[in-house]
Write a structure and sequence with these properties.
Elements lengths: L12 E12 L2 E12 L3 E5 L6 H8 L7 E6 L5 E4 L13 H6 L3 H4 L7 H13 L15 H15 L3 E5 L7 H16 L3 E5 L3 H7 L2 E5 L3 E6 H4 L2 H12 L15
Parallel strand pairs: 3-7, 3-8, 5-6, 6-7
Antiparallel strand pairs: 1-2, 1-4, 8-9
């Protein structure tokens, strides 16, 4: 097995993972992952299909109960999660501006009142993502790229310290991807911790200083230039080729 590259321990951790194992129907999806995401870091999670990338991200978001281990957040109430586009119901009858204003939910609650400052902030977020004038439109009328811009506008209003993105640029046009990468860079400059599941290795090399390379367990974790070495990518691909439907069940009892 290749040597795992771990982030510098001296840096303050925004998210700490301790011996995390995730299983579905007792079949392992993520094996015994430990490590930390430094506060203010910008990290990509990459690996072949079925490597456990999205499962890890959902565990970080608190959406999956680990079979073993734990995830600890320095600021547990300051987290935002963007799922894959396929997991979001775009037929829900809501306007673009109402979708964006949902980013205020943590501050106002279900029945709270959105004041003028919050409405202005939502308008400013739409402007920032290039959707001026789209506020009244139903979300179902948006293109894939426009809808992703609206979701990023909602993230802006959440004002989170840790932002989790699951394949945020999948099926999105190049111009939208470039604009949204600019927002990610801005969040990074503001000192927020951004963790994104991505597939485009060259995109990761250009825009994400840190990388976690997974193949159900961690193969490498650290500076992208090191974690994305060709021999490590080849090893991840070889492990993916060996996966099969009759993998042994996880020995760890679920719910522990």
């Amino acid at each position: 097995m290749a040597k795992i590259i771990m982030p510098a321990a001296a840096m303050t951790a925004a998210v700490q993972i301790d011996n995390l194992t995730i299983a579905y129907d007792r079949h392992p999806a993520v094996h015994h992952v430990s490590g930390s995401f430094a506060a203010g870091s910008l990290t990509a999670i990459v690996g072949p299909n079925g490597a456990g990338k999205s499962s890890l991200l959902k565990a970080l978001a608190g959406l999956i109960q680990p079979a073993e281990g734990q995830v600890r957040h320095a600021a547990p109430g300051r987290l935002a999660y963007l799922p894959q586009a396929a997991e979001i119901d775009r037929d829900f009858p809501i306007s673009v501006i109402d979708l964006v204003r949902m980013g205020h939910w943590r501050r106002v609650g279900v029945f709270g009142r959105i004041d003028r400052a919050m409405r202005d902030a939502a308008d400013a977020a739409l402007h920032a993502v290039g959707l001026d004038g789209f506020g009244p439109r139903p979300i179902g009328t948006l293109s894939v790229g426009q809808f992703q811009r609206a979701l990023f506008a909602r993230l802006m209003l959440q004002d989170a310290q840790v932002i989790l993105l699951d394949e945020p640029f999948a099926a999105v046009d190049e111009r939208t991807t470039a604009d949204l990468l600019g927002l990610v860079a801005r969040w990074h400059q503001e000192g927020r911790t951004v963790i994104a599941v991505l597939h485009d290795i060259e995109q990761v090399r250009r825009h994400f200083p840190e990388t976690v390379l997974m193949a159900r367990h961690v193969l490498a974790w650290g500076p992208s230039a090191e974690a994305l070495r060709p021999e490590l990518l080849q090893q991840a691909g070889a492990l993916a080729g060996a996966w099969h439907a009759h993998a042994p069940v996880c020995a760890v009892p679920l719910g522990t």
